[in-house]
Amino acid sequence: MKKVRLGIIGAGNMGSGHVQNILAGKTPEVELAAVADRRADRREWLSSVLPESVAVYEEGSALIDSASCDAVLIAVPHYQHPVLAEEAFAKGLHVLCEKPAGVYTKQVREMNAAADRSGKVFAMMFNQRTNCLYRKMHEMVENGELGELKRVNWIITDWYRTQIYYDSGDWRATWNGEGGGVLLNQCPHQLDLLQWICGLPKTVQAFCHEGKWHDIEVEDDVTAYLEFENGATGVFVTTTGDAPGTNRFEITGTLGKLVCEEDKLTFWKLGMEEREFCRTAKNGFEKPSCEKIEVETDGENPQHVGVLNAFAGNILHGAPLVADGREGIRGLTLSNAMHLSSWLKQPVEIPFDEELYLEELNRRRANSRQKTGPSITFSTEGTY
């Protein structure tokens, strides 16, 4: 069987998980060819678990230049995603990038252009798109089963993180090292899913509280109000400071309400289109009839392995990707708009002024704290 020779750049929390999935035989069309990490302790760990045929490098650029790979998986701090992706495209390599696509949309737009010029496969590690619940929500909204969108509410506060998590790396939770907090680290999946299922809003008003629950300089508590082109509204609430936290995604349309919570999908289906019912009802307190339906799915949720197998399948025989890499800019557009709105203390229209965003970000980077201390790698198994 022909396989894709993959190089993984970054063997931290996420990269080490990808290494272990491949070594465990979960990706039959992927052969691990090389891994790179700047930390000596991670290279020591790699040497202890990898077969001798897998090369270990200190720098991602050296791995890219080695000509030992057909493709790379980028799993390093966020600012480096577009830089390494563009290097890989220039060398004729396919690219799979961990979320987020980058820190700011201007840089990611340049990365997307590099992908277009290369003609190589470009994918994003949006593993939550493989979840049967979100795939079904996407399908139902696309098929018009909810009617016209009216309201979107997502409270995603089960991202609880302790202080040691933020202290585990000198790049974490700093403007200069990570470029943001909960919006850029924990929530890229949810922001991607929100736009994938409901579309991008046209206006965002957000309140990002920096270091509210932790000793960090970036946001760990966010409430955002959204307005969509058709007049629908939404609220997005997230934090890493709530325990036990909540994950409830609710979409209301003119034909009913769809709720995803506690690994279940429930549809309250109206017997009549709400707008028509409102216009024609003879009783001021009457409501349209409603049927509660427990939505069935295919039950499949392959997560990171599903994305990696689809990536290899697309390279080898044109199978569909889970998420094209160029789509990474859309969820990032949402987080950038939320940050900019909070910084300016005013609503922000999408598309926003990318130069103004970068100017505001760089002001914060210039005053970013310099963290010291040991780096710690945690297992991410069971956290998504």
From TrEMBL:
Ranges of residues in domain GFO/IDH/MocA-like oxidoreductase: 134-258
Every Gfo/Idh/MocA-like oxidoreductase N-terminal domain range: 5-124
InterPro entries recorded: Gfo/Idh/MocA-like_OxRdtase_N, Gfo/Idh/MocA_Oxidoreductase, GFO_IDH_MocA-like_dom, NAD(P)-bd_dom_sf
Protein name per Swiss-Prot or TrEMBL: Gfo/Idh/MocA family oxidoreductase
Organism: Neglectibacter timonensis
